[in-house]
Amino acid sequence: MNTSRWPLLLLATSGWLTLLVATQATGAAPLRVTVTVVYLLTCPGAAVLAFFRPLLSPRDHTGDAMESLALTLALSVALGILVSEVFFMTGTFTVYRALTVLATITSLAALGVPLTAYRARRQAARP
């Protein structure tokens, strides 16, 4: 397997590992809170950004690391708010449900990166 795909695989599994820690780590409240907050602030946004980045033209994503970090944080917070809001509006919010949906979004986006990269290369090759 290509070594450049390992970060995407780790990103795809990050939500499920967070869900496991959040639901199964008994008596470890600081660990659960830390893992969950770090996940919620970084992973969904990083996966969505990685998914859409190949579709942007090269000049659109040559920013520095701080710019990418800020966009990752903003996307993660926005996704968390949208998912939570849907559950709150339907009166069915639980942390487990919200984390499950965010883990699914993160996994689908991270695992879809090779597809969008392939489509972007195909689009660039057309005259």
Structural description of this entry:
This protein is mainly α and 127 residues long. Helix content is 78%, strand content 0%. It is built from 5 helices and no strands. It has helices spanning 6-24, 29-52, 65-90, 95-111, 113-125. The mean pLDDT is 88.
Write a concise synopsis of the structure shown.
The chain is mainly α and 127 residues long. 78% of the residues lie in helices and 0% in strands. The chain contains 5 helices and no strands.
Any idea what the shape is?
A: elongated
> What's the helix-strand series?
HHHHH
Q: Helical element count?
A: 5
Quote the beta fraction: under 5%
Q: Radius of gyration in whole Å, from Cα? A: 16 Å
- By DSSP, the count of extended strands is 0
- Unreliable parts: none
- Estimate percent helicity: over 70%
* Mean pLDDT level: 88
- Could you tell me how far the N terminus lies from the C terminus, measured between alpha carbons in angstroms? 32 Å
Main β-sheet: number of strands, strand sense, barrel status?
none
